[in-house]
Amino acid sequence: MTPTLTRFERPVRWVHQVTSVLMLICLATAAVLYVPALAETVGRRHLIRAVHIYAGFGLPVPALLGWASRAFRDDLRRLNRFSTADWEWLRGRDRRATVGGRGIHPVGKYNAGQKLNAAFAGGAILVMLGTGLILTFPHPWPDSLRAGATFVHDWLFFAIFVVVAGHLWYALRDRGALSGMFLGHVPEDWAARHHAAWLDEHERPDRVAGKS
After folding, report:
1. Which of 5, 8, 48, 89 has its CA 20 to 30 A from that of 207?
2. ∠ Cα 117 119 122 (to 5°)
3. Structurally, how many domains does the chain consist of?
4. Distant-in-sequence, close-in-space partners of 212: CB < 8 Å, separation ≥ 6
5. Which secondary-structure segment (H or E) carries 186?
6. How many angstroms separate the CA atoms of 122 and 38, rounded?
7. Structural domain harbouring 74
């Protein structure tokens, strides 16, 4: 039995997982709507558009519901703070380097990359929601605003696609991170390598035994 540490409470995992599913639906349906070859292959444009709209308007809902959870609010506070260690992590050439099984950078529960990704995701959702509202209900808005909303919505889609692809690429290579998000706990040695300062916050009574 490898000692493990609780990383994400159930409400936090729920918010992340539901938001991820909605985001992937938005990206997939957007690709079908805007890529002619996919549009011809899939067809049913009206249905795809409806799914895209409902998934897009639903994106903020998990976070709003998650706000009722103390664990979720605590994680948001952590994500909103940039420390000296975060800047050191960003400047570091080998961010995964360890000494004696511990990361050389005293990273907290979230590293700087995760904090920047969360900030981008939150901002992107709000911008896509606003521009999507204009595109879905175009009649009250002037032509110049609709044109601007279309430009921002389309180009931000590409930026989100790249960021999500990178996020998935990193996550799928890290079994510890996947365990934390889907099972809620991570091995202590993984925490020592990647989030040493966060591990130091916990005293032995807070640790649980489980499988790696």
Report:
1. 89
2. 105
3. 1
4. 2, 4, 179, 187, 190
5. strand 185-187
6. 28
7. 2-210
Q: 18-70: per-residue pLDDT in tens?
A: 999 999 999 999 999 888 888 878 888 899 999 999 999 999 999 999 999 99
Q: How many residues does the chain have?
A: 212
Give the angle subtended at the CA of 55 by the CAs of 49 and 60, to the nearest 5°.
145
How far, in Å, CA of 24 to CA of 155, rounded?
Answer: 17
Question: Which long-range contacts does 158-161 make (Cβ < 8 Å, 24+ apart)?
Answer: 159/124, 160/23, 160/27, 160/124, 160/128, 161/27
- The C-alpha angle with vertex 39 and arms to 34 and 40, in degrees rounded to 5, equals 145
Find all residues with CB under 8 Å of 177, minimum gap 6, and list them. Answer: 170, 171, 186
Residue with tokens 């506070």: 77
What pTM did the predictor assign?
0.84
Locus of tokens 């979230």: 110
Strand order in the sheet with 208-210: 185-187, 2-6, 208-210
